[in-house]
Amino acid sequence: MFKPYTIKDIAKALGLSTSTVSRALNGSYEIGTETKKLVLEYAEKVNYRPNPIALSLKEQRSRSIGVVVCEVANNYFSQAINGIESIAYSSGYHVIITQTHESAAREAANVQHLLSRHVDGLLIALSAETTDTSEFKFLHSKGFPMVFFDRIVENIDTHKVTVDNFKGAFEATEQLLNAGYTKIANLASTPNLLNTRERFDGYKAALLKHNIQILPEYVKYCHHGGMVAGEVENALQELMSLPDPPQAIISTNDRLTTGCIPILKKMGYRIPEDVALTGFTNSEVAESFAPPLTVIRQPAFTMGQMATEMLINVIESKYPVYEAMSTQVDTELIVRQSSMPAKI
After folding, report:
1. Of 33, 99, 143, 187, which is least surrounded by CB within 10 A?
2. Structural fold of domain 165-298+333-339
């Protein structure tokens, strides 16, 4: 098993004290030139590297940031992580990424693991299952630096970066209405998440503005965000099997949206001839889908950067930051063939 060299190992090999070796490695003026040269050459020979955990205990900082997201393969979060890393690394911080796979238990375990690694702060997007936020409340009460992004907590006055979910869903629904669709279904992630509820409110507001009745049977929730096998397909089958099926679907989650096209095609439906489709997604290939997909796009990379800048400011502040910082950015509606005017 690989065992890295320690200061004690170097001291023993050279017949020096550990304090002498430590000072030599740190370039102390108290250590003679020959001794420094001897220590540094031997350290290079055995590929000595400082222990980051030991350093973090000594300095009370690890120069690392923990990231908690549902899934790295998710188009939104992969782009957000790129934004996080671009700021973190240029600011001298390492990034430790963990995935919850929409599990509250795994989220809690990930947070505890990151804390055991002495991260200086956390960037968090809640899992679909999370309803108990007591662990985050405790950390917040102790002044631990945390920033929530995209999927945020409601009952903790902490730092957060979000998009205008209401406006994004409103504009997408209204575009479908203006294209002639009046029977519009809403396919969503769990209502546990605030962004799910805000997107539903935008959908609902657009229908009410156009005097369209909101039908409960047109609203389907995928409580695991589409990560459970068959979840999206079951929801779509229920929608399309209704006596009066929807003419269009707005999907309010990245994984749900990208999953809809192949499932609808498998079920024998043409898009948009049989059912139109619009959805929240940051997929880079949405334009290459057949047909090209109308999307509500979030500035994920920028949001990752903003959240990281916010967190580092809190970590490096000389004084406690009591006032929570909150930033909201706009979504972008990109209209393509999948939501073209209905031929009805």
Report:
1. 33
2. Rossmann fold (3.40.50)
